[in-house]
Design a protein that fits this description.
Layout (H helix, E strand, L loop, with lengths): L8 E5 L12 E8 L2 E6 L8 H9 L9 E3 L8 E4 L7 E4 L2 E4 L2 H9 L5 E5 L2 E4 L2 H7 L3 E5 L2 H4 L6 H14 L16
Parallel strand pairs: 4-8
Antiparallel strand pairs: 1-2, 1-10, 2-3, 3-9, 5-7, 5-8, 6-7
Length: 185
C-alpha cells in the first residue's frame, strides 16, 4: 500500500522535535510527490521589512505593509500564499493558492485588501523522508484549511495540535449526533 500524498496538509511539530528550525512550527505542504515534499512554515514571522527584501530579491519598489515569513531552511525565491485564483500558479487547497513568479507576487502586493503571506525560504524533504518522519512521530498531520493558513500565526501551533487531539479522541465527531447532556440521564 502506498503512502498518501500530503499536499494541502498542515504539519505541526511535536513538542519534543529536536530540530530548532521546526520547534513549535506549523508547515503547510504545498507540493508532495514521489520525488519528495515542499512546504512553508506558517508561523515564523521575520523582523525584516518586506519592502527591503522585495527590492533586493525581485527589484520590486514599494511600501509594502505585509509581514515577511520564514518558510524554512532551504533557500529559494520569494513565495506567496494567497487567495487569488487569477494570480495562482498552483492551488494548494480550496481558497489557498501558491505563486513565486515575480509578476504574480508584484500584482499580489499591489492589490488592496489582499489575503496574502510572503515567504523567504522553504522546507523540503527528499523521497520518502517526510513519510519516515511522520512514522517516527515527529509531526502531527491535519488537512489544511484557509482559516488556519491565513489565521493568527501566534496561535496556529496550538490550534493545529488541539484539532489533531480532538480528531484522535473524537474521530467521528463531524458525522455523529451530538451526545445528550448528562443531566438528561
Amino acid at each position: 500500500m502506498s503512502n498518501p500524498m500530503l499536499a494541502g496538509h498542515l504539519l505541526a511539530a511535536v513538542p519534543n522535535l529536536q530540530d530548532p528550525n521546526f520547534f513549535r512550527s506549523v508547515v503547510l505542504i504545498f507540493q508532495h510527490d514521489p520525488e519528495g515534499a515542499a512546504g512553508l512554515i506558517l508561523n515564523r514571522q521575520l523582523p525584516i521589512s518586506l519592502a527591503e527584501v522585495a527590492k533586493e530579491a525581485m527589484q520590486l519598489e514599494g511600501e509594502f505593509e505585509q509581514a515577511l515569513f520564514w518558510g524554512g531552511p532551504v533557500e529559494g525565491p520569494l513565495m506567496a500564499l494567497h487567495d487569488s485564483l487569477a494570480l495562482a500558479e498552483m492551488q494548494v487547497l480550496p481558497g489557498v493558492f501558491f505563486s513565486m513568479q515575480r509578476q504574480n507576487i508584484q500584482a499580489l502586493l499591489e492589490r488592496k485588501n489582499a489575503v496574502l503571506r510572503i515567504f523567504t525560504g522553504y522546507s523540503g524533504w527528499g523521497s520518502q523522508q517526510l513519510q519516515d518522519e511522520l512514522k517516527a512521530g515527529g509531526w502531527l498531520s491535519l488537512p489544511g484549511s484557509e482559516e488556519l493558513v491565513f489565521g493568527d500565526p501566534e496561535l496556529l501551533w496550538r490550534q493545529v495540535c488541539e484539532r489533531v487531539g480532538t480528531d484522535i479522541i473524537l474521530p467521528n465527531r463531524r458525522n455523529s449526533i451530538p451526545p445528550m447532556p448528562p443531566e438528561w440521564n
